[in-house]
């Protein structure tokens, strides 16, 4: 029953609530917005309307006389896939919100609902694209035809049609920010700001003012009022990269901002309403951090409503030739030079390599190869790939200090891998961070 949700020139809204006065209030507001409205007081009546008519949006209460609003959400998710459904209820709780969003709800809001909130919700839902599909976002595109990438593309298309918080997992360099951008670009907030924040790059004493802003005179150097990340992303998407790096004190404040949809600037006495969609990412295991007491469980459940896992590049080896050609084309366009060719042997070497740094490492490898190659064809020796043994994780126990040479090699290997990770697998930058030359780094990687 995947029907056109705009069956006529007018948008038709289905309101489902067991309280007649609430239905009447919602219906009156929607009619004043120029919308056509159908009202239902029971689950059975709502299902009948859905089978007989096409709708652009469904607003439903969580509790109904003959069932749960979640049943309606699941029905719509299964049989009316292009129809956004928002849950509006007085029985607000984190558990209910997570359950509704996981079931496929577009959004979840608690009563009492202001007219401004209702209008914003309706406008956002009606601005969704007609069909769920993942398109390129301002030059950003998820390339690849392998099964894992096809699954990610399908998930992005689905997540774009929801306001649910998304938790993106995956190794460093696997494209987590790209996925977040595509979710934003293909959703109802695509014309609003996308604000990426690297949580690990903000000093702890500046976090509150950076996230929530500050008033003039709030502290030394605060010469003017300043908006934070939440205000900058208002109406759009706030992408929290490396969210595991947030200190516990900041996690409490972030949780309250997400739940209340209000923030208070440093030095202010009043709160400002904010409307942002939260997408977060980390290469760490948040569940294990929760068990270790390093990440708040309530914030974890609030962020991890829907998880999107980005596959590593070694899981998508068949995509490496396509990705390589796209990267080489981009490098040539930026430099204004002919596109360098990748020899068959070089392509095979790339496909066989494990890429611990994933796509980011592939980009750095090809960029360096283009810079150092003396011909118009890139050969295997131009790639300078790390030996396979070096890329593998050590299996020796971390406390084993003998044989001494094995222990020293392992410490050196771990230091180099950490430097590569911190510099996004830019080997020149990693060598500088380690305080050695590029040639010395190459020698050590080959030796280890």
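-> sequence recovered:
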């Amino acid at each position: 029953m995947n029907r056109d949700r705009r069956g006529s020139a007018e948008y038709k809204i289905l309101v489902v609530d067991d309280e007649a006065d609430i239905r009447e209030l919602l219906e009156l507001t929607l009619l004043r917005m120029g919308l056509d409205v159908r009202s239902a007081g029971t689950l059975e009546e709502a299902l009948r309307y859905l089978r007989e008519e096409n709708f652009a949006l469904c607003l439903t209460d969580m509790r109904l006389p003959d069932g749960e609003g979640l049943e309606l959400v699941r029905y719509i998710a299964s049989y009316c896939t292009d129809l956004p459904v928002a849950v509006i209820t007085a029985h607000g709780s984190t558990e209910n919100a997570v359950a509704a969003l996981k079931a496929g709800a577009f959004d979840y809001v608690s009563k009492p609902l202001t007219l401004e909130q209702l209008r914003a919700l309706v406008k956002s839902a009606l601005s969704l694209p007609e069909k769920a599909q993942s398109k390129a976002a301002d030059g950003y595109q998820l390339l690849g035809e392998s099964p894992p990438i096809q699954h990610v593309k399908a998930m992005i298309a689905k997540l774009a049609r929801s306001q649910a918080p998304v938790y993106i997992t995956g190794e460093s360099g696997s494209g987590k920010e790209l996925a977040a951008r595509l979710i934003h670009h293909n959703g109802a907030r695509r014309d609003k700001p996308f604000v990426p924040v690297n949580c690990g790059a903000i000093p702890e004493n500046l976090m509150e003012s950076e996230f929530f802003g500050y008033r003039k005179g709030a502290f030394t150097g605060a010469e003017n009022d300043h908006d934070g990340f939440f205000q900058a992303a208002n109406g759009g998407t706030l992408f929290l990269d490396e969210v595991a790096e947030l200190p516990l004190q900041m996690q409490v404040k972030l949780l309250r901002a997400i739940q209340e949809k209000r923030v208070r600037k440093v030095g202010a006495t009043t709160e400002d309403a904010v409307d942002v969609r939260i997408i977060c990412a980390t290469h760490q295991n948040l569940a294990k951090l929760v068990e270790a007491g390093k990440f708040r469980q309530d914030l974890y459940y609030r962020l991890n409503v829907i998880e999107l896992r980005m596959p590593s590049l070694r899981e998508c080896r068949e995509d490496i030739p396509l990705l390589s050609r796209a990267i080489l084309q981009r490098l040539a366009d930026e430099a204004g030079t002919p596109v360098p060719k990748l020899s068959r042997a070089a392509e095979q070497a790339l496909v066989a390599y494990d890429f611990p740094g994933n796509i980011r490492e592939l980009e750095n490898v090809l960029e360096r190869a283009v810079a150092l190659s003396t011909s118009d064809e890139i050969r295997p020796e131009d790639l300078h790939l790390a030996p396979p043994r070096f890329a593998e994780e050590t299996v020796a126990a971390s406390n084993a200090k003998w044989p001494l040479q094995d222990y020293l090699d392992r410490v050196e290997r771990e230091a180099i891998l950490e430097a590569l990770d911190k510099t996004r697998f830019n080997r020149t930058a990693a060598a500088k961070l380690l305080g050695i030359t590029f040639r010395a780094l190459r020698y050590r990687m080959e030796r280890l």
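Residues 404-422 form the longest helix (19 residues).
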